[in-house]
Amino acid sequence: MPAMHPDEPGDGFSSRDRNDPLDAVAWAQTRPDLLLGKGFSASPELLLDRLQGAVRILEPEGRTWCEVREGWGYLTCTVDWLSPAPARDPFLEVVPFVEAGPNSGRPEILVSAFSAVAATMTAADLEPRLLAGRERDLDPAVVDHARSLLGPTGRLVVLRVQPAI
Asked: What does DSSP say about strands 72-77 and 129-132: parallel, antiparallel, or unpaired?
């Protein structure tokens, strides 16, 4: 976990921490009150709501759809909101969200930090990219369902907050 340096200017990460995405995810995991809201705990609905709000700001012409099914949360958009690929990966790094206003951060890191298992995929590449958890925990039936939700040009995120029993 990165050390916080409140006496240094910047966003709370020292320059040595800035290039290590695992440190950013670990940092996020230790701050649920700050990132999710005081008194809130991670749930598929909460994470999907935060992500869907951001996608609607980034891609106002895109159509989004969310579903929670058997403990798995799915968010799909008709547009890949990460295309072209950003310089910093918002699923693994704390990235400013200037489009949402001052002191805002992109919510994709919440998916990686607060999900037991999470993956993303695009219509251009139907292979899931694991964001959290282990590949063996990403049920093939869940991946098949996720693929069925993707349109010809979009992106999808699938997540599970609690591990499967």
From this structure: unpaired
